[in-house]
Amino acid sequence: MNVKILKKNNFELPQYETTGSSGMDLRACLEGPIVLKPFDRYLVPTGLFIEIPIGYEAQIRARSGLAIKHGISLVNGIGTIDSDYRGEIKVILINLGQEDFSINDGDRIAQMVFMKIERAEIEEVHIINESERGTGGFGHTGIK
């Protein structure tokens, strides 16, 4: 899969850090530092614009190190970038920690993972088949 990237920042292109990496780090593209107070959220620009082939999406995910060390996460859990979006990639960060957190120009703030997308054909019906689980919801299968 070939992804075209327009870079309007001073950093290297995103890349896989190891042969087993699933995601590429995204960096903050800022004019000055941002301080996220506890429970503050901020839309952080990256200076990247991408062209994703139809049939794929880019998922923006939290970095585990920022999450465990500082409580920094994504407000929307995982962000989706559709193949037809051409705007700047921006990351919605939230500080779930107890202390202020500073974000500086060039800081690695999230990771980007590419996924193949299957488009569903929706069919309206009047009944759906039963399953072994049925209508059991959260925690229905119990603890073993």
Overall description:
- The model has no long low-confidence stretch (mean pLDDT 95).
- 5% of the residues lie in helices and 38% in strands.
- It has 144 residues and is mainly β.
- It is built from one helix and ten strands.
- The strands form three sheets. It has a four-stranded antiparallel sheet with strand order 1-4-8-6. A four-stranded antiparallel sheet has the order 2-10-5-7, with no helix packed on it. Strands 3-9 form a two-stranded antiparallel sheet.
- The chain has a single domain, classed as Deoxyuridine 5'-Triphosphate Nucleotidohydrolase, Chain A (Distorted Sandwich).
- The chain is globular and about 55 Å long.
CATH classification, class level: Mainly Beta
Query: Could you say what the CATH topology is called?
Result: Deoxyuridine 5'-Triphosphate Nucleotidohydrolase, Chain A
Tertiary shape: globular
Q: What count of domains describes the coordinates?
A: 1
- Biggest β-sheet strands, sense, barrel: 4 strands, antiparallel
Return the CATH architecture.
Answer: Distorted Sandwich
Number of DSSP-assigned strands? 10
Q: What count of helical segments does DSSP give?
A: 1
Distance between the termini: 41 Å
What is the typical, i.e. mean, pLDDT?
A: 95
